[in-house]
Amino acid sequence: MTEAVWVQIVVALGLVAVAVINKRDSRATRREVRAVRADTAAVREQTENSHASAEFPIMRDQQDEQLAVSRATHDQVLALAEVQRGMDRRLGRLERQASDLRAADVATDDTLDRHEVDHARALARAIADRDRALIDLAAHFEQRVPELIAAALDGHVAACPLRTPRP
Which domain holds residue 60? Predict the structure, then answer.
């Protein structure tokens, strides 16, 4: 190889080395530039705010008052939302209790109906038993009354002084 080729290879390697070094340095430089830009933006905003409050002090106070009113309204809305959630919870609880009461009422009605039917059956049985007892008693009296009358008459006739003289 000739000397010219060697020179071109060395120059190319030098350019590649410079590009690699610049690339690495440019990343660091970009980071530094971004940090400086952020700092500059913060300083600019602070400066603008201080100028604005110096130039327009009433406007700043008005904005602060509006912000306070807005925050108070927001707090009230949050409080109302919490109250509404509480009312919704209570309403749900009342609906569940009402449902339970309806179910208990139905169960109570069913129980009362069963007891009423049971008592009606017991009353019907008692009436039937009483009627049977009256029928039995009437039949018994119908049989016993003539027997008692006959026995009383027989006893009277046997003891009657007119029939049998006294000694």
Answer: 3-117
Residue 8 CB contacts under 8 Å (≥ 6 apart), including other chains? none
Residue 91 lies in a domain: yes
Between helix 3-55 and helix 57-159 the angle, nearest 10°, is 70
For the record, the structure tokens of 94 come out as: 């009342």
Number of domains in the chain: 1
Return the SS3 of 54: helix
- CA neighbor of 45 nearest in space, from 57, 35, 56, 37: 37
Nearest CA among 107, 47, 14 for reference residue 6: 14
Cα–Cα distance between 150 and 139 in angstroms, integer?
A: 17
On whether residue 71 sits in a domain, the answer given is yes
CA angle (10, 14, 20) in 5-degree steps: 145
In whole angstroms, what is the distance from residue 80 CA to residue 74 CA?
10
| Per-residue pLDDT tens over the stretch 92-150 | 999 999 998 888 888 888 888 898 999 999 999 999 999 998 888 888 877 877 888 88
The reply to whether 46 falls in a domain is yes
Does 137 map to a domain? no
* Number of Cβ within a 10 Å radius of residue 63: 13
